[in-house]
Amino acid sequence: MTEMTEQAPVTQATATKVAALPDAQTVTSVQHYTDRLFAFRVTRPQSLRFRSGEFVMIGLMGDNGKPLLRAYSIASPSWDEELEFYSIKVPDGPLTSKLQHIQPGDEIILRPKPVGTLVHDALLPGKRIYFFSTGTGFAPFASLLRDPQTYEDYDEVIITHTCREVAELTYGRDLIESIRNDELLQELIGEENLAKLRYYPTTTREESPKMGRITTLIENGELFADLGVPPLNPEHDRAMICGSLAFNIDVKALLEQAGLREGANSEPKEFVVEKAFVGDGI
Ligand SMILES: Cc1cc2nc3c(=O)[nH]c(=O)nc-3n(C[C@H](O)[C@H](O)[C@H](O)COP(=O)(O)OP(=O)(O)OC[C@H]3O[C@@H](n4cnc5c(N)ncnc54)[C@H](O)[C@@H]3O)c2cc1C
Ligand SMILES: NC(=O)c1ccc[n+]([C@@H]2O[C@H](COP(=O)([O-])OP(=O)(O)OC[C@H]3O[C@@H](n4cnc5c(N)ncnc54)[C@H](OP(=O)(O)O)[C@@H]3O)[C@@H](O)[C@H]2O)c1
Question: Looking at domain 16-114, does it have CATH number 2.40.30.10?
Answer without folding.
Answer: yes
